[in-house]
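Please review the protein record below. Tell me whether the encoded fold seems credible here:
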Amino acid sequence: MNLDWQHLHSFVEQHFAKQHFIKQHTLESELEHAHEKPDFVVALSGGVDSIALFHLFLQLRENTGINFSAIHVNHGLSQYAQQWQDKLQVLCDQKDVRLIVQQVSIQAQSRTSLEQQARDARYQAIANALNTHSILFTGHHQSDQMETFLLRLMRGSGLTGLASMREVSLFPHLAGRQKQLKLARALLSVPKQSIVDFAKTHDLTWVEDDSNSDEAFDRNYARLSILPQLFKRWPLAGKSINTSTILLQQELDLLNEYVEQDYLACLAKGFNQQAVLDINSLTDLSLSKQKAVVRMFVYRQINTYPALTILNELLQQINNLNPDTNIHLKVADSFLKTHKTHLYLVNDLANAFIKEANGSSTRDLSAVELMVSSGKWSVLPENMLYKEIKVEVAAEHTAVIKWARFSEMFQPHKNSGHKKLNKYLKETGCPTWWRDHIPLVYINGELAAIADIAVSAECKYKVSVEVR
């Protein structure tokens, strides 16, 4: 196929004009009059794919006036990394394109995990740099889709994994999803050779990443050793696999619509308004539906799926759950845990270092204290259950936040007796793993409130607390 800017124009019109913006007579006016005018950002590595995409955007800008910027992530893994960055900066300066540069540091743990580490660090850095509602365009093409499909096939993926990459998807990193970023792959149906031909026709220059020839990396092995054999036997293999992934995506969408009904029926609110699954509702479903609901529950929170072994173990325990049984299963950097009749997915707060404003770190929450100003949102130390707190109290009083003081006595109501803090938190439904993360508000040295849960009946001051 002959690649030109019209391909990119049609892609943007299909995915981002008609579906997301106010309709006008032209794509340009649609974008100009949008309620949320998007930032189009090109992921610019310096390789031929990203350079070709960058040039297509230059042509799009010239023909339509649609503007864009570029972002480059310097991983520091190659001895040429700084040279590549400098060349891209010169290119963007010449073309009057804003270039955002992000530096990341990766501590390689093994050859097989370096790809994933670099990918995670790259998307984290990009998410931090982009504005809300930005759309990141990458140079993924037809052969990349083939590699993804084959690698997932070798890992034993099911329908979700084999559906591979979509032309437009949510951002793959949680930080990006919180900012409502999207990932766009405008060249996903384009053969690699068409991209190279386009680059040569327009006399473009690009860099060759020396690591791309290292077959110790699975993706390189697939690209250099497997794909050539497939193309030799089946010249249209790329188009065929691309068609298969589109069909799988359609079937997956249909399945998700079906599962959504059961998912919503099982969805509930746990402590702190946390999204949880109601175990009683879950166990009323067939085993196949249970698996589908749990997978959807996990994916919608952390953008990944639990391994089949974890899923099977979880459901075996849930379906044989005793009242005193506590489930604790790791999924990525989170844990599936049970509390009473609820299934939670939570961060590993118990093993996290609490990072204070002065730069120190500790795992002993009882040693952490924070003085706050009345009426203002105060940022809490990192890796806490809450991110911010606001205490309203008369200015002449001193408000201090403390944690994990379980021996403290607390009187929730005037007509109730005093209770140990740990016992009271248990009665409120607070799971054990969060109890030491609940901020305790002390006014002039006296325990006045437990977060926004309760104010002490003995409190002599007018106080209100908000957390978020």
Confidence is low (pLDDT under 50) at residues 19-26.
